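Dear support,

I submitted the protein below through the web form. The confirmation email said the job was done, but the results page showed an empty box. After a refresh the structure appeared. I'm attaching both so you can tell me whether what I see now is the final result or a partial one.
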Amino acid sequence: SDHLRNEPIYTSSQIPITTSSGIHGPIIGEWVIMTSLVASHRYSILHEWQKAQSWEDSPSAKAHFASVTDNVGKRLGILGYGSIGRQVARYAQVMGMDVVAFTANPRNGPESRRDHGYVVPGTGDPEGEIPSAWFSGLDKKSLHEFLSYDLDQLLVCVPLTQQTKHLLGKEEFDILSKKNAFVTNIARGEILVQEALIDALKDFENSSFSPGEGKKGLRGAALDVATPEPLPKDHPLWTAPNCIITPHMSGINHNYSTRALQVVEKNLERLAKGERLLNLVNRETGYASKLA
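What the results page shows now:
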């Protein structure tokens, strides 16, 4: 709903505004896992070999993959535990990962952890049972506590608001660099300070391993969003090391319109019954709350 924030219907009326939140979980969740595995399995090398029609099986070729690890026992931090975050948590759990969540408001009990928005049947984490730990807050201290929780991967899926703009910069990437985390952003480009992200990716590429300290920087990133969009051809983000970029299309799929209309149908039923609408936007926070 951020594209409506300066429109009269948003600023000068009380007309209820709802979103299609919930319909994107399965397809964007698959994009998150796909790009993560493409990076961790160094698939770009394999793809180049295939394009060259070259069966590379020499010891030197195989050495490229000696550092590849699976995801069992690794920790995924999800910044913004909405429908997309919950579906990624579901996928990650199947791969043997530990999942921890961060939300703006505390989720201290079962009811507060429940997803009260639209959920594609058979998907997500409707009861909020997957995370082994929950963090919350709107201050830097709370955010840094979450980022310091030994994260191997960070998924950014918070809405863009005044509070989340440039939420992650040099200080936050320095914390994540302690485990050379992989950062995925499917939210909005403005949530990250891109220059700081590029520097952190370069730090990993250019630093050498130090016993007891490891390497500096972030080992990689996957971005479906950027600032600006479209990203100019000469933008330094294109050539940032170990960075996967797609043109804000992770949510495009065949089922989009059908599922969006399912949300409309459910809300028409609720409207007729005088019930609270699904995915109702809170004009003060700027997004649809998942709380009842």
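Response: this is the final, complete result; the empty box was a page-load delay. Strands lie at 75-79, 98-103, 133-136, 153-156, 182-185, 220-223, 243-245, 281-282, 287-288.
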